[in-house]
């Protein structure tokens, strides 16, 4: 398999370059860490307050469950998130996309490698932050051993799904010169349908139904629910199925949009 | 009087500049409406499970969202862009041109860049505040509304001084663009009353990054929950911040050597 061997060499080289790059911007990492810490605390604190005022629990969540939920949410968010759709407009407008196209390898590989390296590096920071949150907010888990094991494939599939989906979204920049508004609409959908504002179990029934049909729940909320031990064996299997179906749909969509987009692309500033 | 004229001139130039890019207005309007809708929907989700949040009612939180947008809008219209431009000026040496002008340099750099479309946030925020006040009804008396205005101005002065101090740090640490991102991150936490947060974060939001004074305190004034002592403290603090930041700015300016010269 010379193809695969070559791909591995490309990834190894990309990893080394990315690590050097990330270490050059340590200051940005500190700021990023602050955001990482603040975000989960905001809704964690809001929902803990609600649980207390409702006699200790709301919708089956006690204060400790919210601590576990929002900390796991932070971890899953951190491992699945991508930023490429925020960069594509800039990439295309300034002509940085042209060199990527000239390489004898699909540009998505560049971003996968970039993504994995960043996560590998930052996970060393995420772990202490998570431990701090779990301890200081007194998190409680009701997870069984099989659910811990079930969490791993759910997380990996979520990473694949979110990357493919958001990379396809990024390709909109081939047609739209200003993607800010589109990206914001995407963020809002993500906020409510993937369980960022509140666990989906606390959302109105309509929102829950829509969330099951849309891909967002399968990118974030599903692995979190699995890790918290809130899903039975059947629900976990259905979840894997939904993730795989959405990955297949996203890959097909990516290929179609990519072919059409690349024909539209005319280099700027080359 | 002359300073006011200068401020007016800077703002007018900024507006004229922005009017060249009118599509930006609709993009900003779309984004602001979505942002506001998101904030209100989040409140609706929370209040579908409870009647009060840490002693705050739904209408009080709506007022908080209004102030969050109003203050955030004011910061983003002129203060943040001007501070970004100041830091860039220190790095590139273009600040020289500002300093040679025969006017107060602090006023010039503070009104240098105007992001006029962010006024949409100011307008939307004001509308939300008015709606919240109507719903709160007789709980908001004339004296509360007056005190609210006073505290809001004091809060803005504190935020402005804080950002000026951050930007002034650029005289020593040249590569510092990201420092304003710290403020933006902490500001997000101001969407909810700071009283909800654990003590260490509440302290950080009051003392380290004074978001509490700009958002939570004005709303507490509006709903008549603020003790007079806190009101006086806020105003005194605003004066201290203004004087202190001006001193720090002048002190920093003495360290400026010009990058291009």
Whole-number total of structural domains of chain A: 1
| Count of DSSP strands of chain A | 2
| Estimated share of beta-strand residues of chain A | under 5%
> How many structurally independent domains of chain B?
1
Q: State the share of residues found in helices of chain A, binned by percent.
A: over 70%
Supply the helix-strand structural class of chain B.
mainly alpha
Q: What is the straight-line distance between the termini of chain A?
A: 35 Å
Task: Outline the low-pLDDT stretches of chain B.
Answer: none
What can be said about the biggest beta sheet of chain A? Answer: 2 strands, antiparallel
Low-confidence stretches of chain A: none
Question: What would you call the shape of chain A?
Answer: globular
What is the rounded distance between the termini of chain B? 33 Å
| Strands of chain B, total number | 0
Secondary-structure content class of chain A: mainly alpha
Mean pLDDT of chain A: 87
What is the overall shape of chain B? globular
Strand order within the widest sheet of chain A? 1-2
Number of helices of chain A: 12
Structure in words:
The complex is a heterodimer of chains A (about 270) and B (about 260). Chain A is built from 12 helices and 2 strands; from the N terminus they run ααββαααααααααα. Chain A has a two-stranded antiparallel sheet with strand order 1-2. Chain A is globular, with a radius of gyration of 20 Å. In chain B, α2 packs parallel to α6 and α3 runs antiparallel to α6. Chain B contains 12 helices and no strands. Chain B has one domain. Chain B is mainly α. The interface between A and B is medium-sized, with 32 and 32 residues.
């Amino acid at each position: 398999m010379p193809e695969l061997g070559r791909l591995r060499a490309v990834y190894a080289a990309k990893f080394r370059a990315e690590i050097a790059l990330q270490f050059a911007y340590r200051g940005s990492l500190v700021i990023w860490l602050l955001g990482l810490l603040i975000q989960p605390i905001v809704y964690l604190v809001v929902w803990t307050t609600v649980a207390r005022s409702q006699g200790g629990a709301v919708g089956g969540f006690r204060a400790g469950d919210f601590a576990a939920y929002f900390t796991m949410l932070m971890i899953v968010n951190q491992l699945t998130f991508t930023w490429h759709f925020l960069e594509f407009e800039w990439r295309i407008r300034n002509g940085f996309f042209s060199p990527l196209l000239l390489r004898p390898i699909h540009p998505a590989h560049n971003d996968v490698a970039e993504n994995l390296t960043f996560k590998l590096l930052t996970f060393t920071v995420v772990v202490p932050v998570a431990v701090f949150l779990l301890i200081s907010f007194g998190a409680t888990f009701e997870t069984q051993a099989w659910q811990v094991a079930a969490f791993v494939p759910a997380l990996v599939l979520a990473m694949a799904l979110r990357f493919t989906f958001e990379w396809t979204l990024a390709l909109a920049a081939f047609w739209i010169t200003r993607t800010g508004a589109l990206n914001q609409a995407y963020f809002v959908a993500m906020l409510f349908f993937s369980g960022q504002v509140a666990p989906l179990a606390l959302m109105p029934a309509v929102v829950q139904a829509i969330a099951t049909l849309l891909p967002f729940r399968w990118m974030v909320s599903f692995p979190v629910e699995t890790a918290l031990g809130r899903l039975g064996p059947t629900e976990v299997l259905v979840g894997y199925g939904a993730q795989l179906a959405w990955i297949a749909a996203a890959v097909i969509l990516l290929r179609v949009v990519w072919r059409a987009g690349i024909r539209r692309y005319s280099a700027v500033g080359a | 009087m002359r300073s006011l004229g200068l401020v007016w001139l800077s703002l007018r130039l900024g507006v004229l500049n922005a009017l060249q890019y009118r599509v930006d207005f609709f993009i900003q309007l779309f984004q602001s409406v979505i942002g506001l809708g998101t904030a209100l929907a989040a409140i609706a989700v929370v209040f579908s499970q409870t009647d009060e949040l840490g002693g705050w009612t739904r209408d009080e939180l709506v007022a908080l969202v209004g102030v969050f947008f109003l203050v955030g809008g004011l910061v983003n219209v002129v203060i943040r862009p001007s501070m970004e431009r100041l830091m860039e000026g220190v790095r590139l040496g273009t600040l020289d041109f500002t300093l040679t002008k025969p006017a107060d340099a602090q006023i010039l750099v503070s009104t240098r860049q105007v992001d006029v479309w962010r006024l949409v946030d100011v307008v939307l925020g004001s509308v939300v505040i008015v709606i919240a006040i109507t719903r709160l009804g007789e709980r908001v008396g004339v004296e509360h509304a007056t005190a609210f205005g006073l505290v809001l101005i004091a809060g803005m002065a504190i935020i402005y001084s804080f950002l000026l101090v951050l930007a002034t740090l650029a005289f020593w640490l040249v590569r510092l663009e990201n420092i304003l991102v710290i403020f933006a991150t902490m500001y997000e936490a101001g969407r909810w009353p700071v009283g909800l947060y654990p003590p260490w974060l509440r302290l950080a939001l009051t003392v380290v990054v004074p978001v509490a004074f700009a958002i939570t305190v004005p709303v507490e004034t509006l709903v008549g929950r603020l003790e007079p002592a806190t009101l006086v403290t806020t105003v005194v603090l605003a004066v201290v911040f203004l004087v202190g930041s001006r001193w720090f700015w002048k002190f920093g300016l003495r360290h400026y050597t010009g990058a291009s010269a």
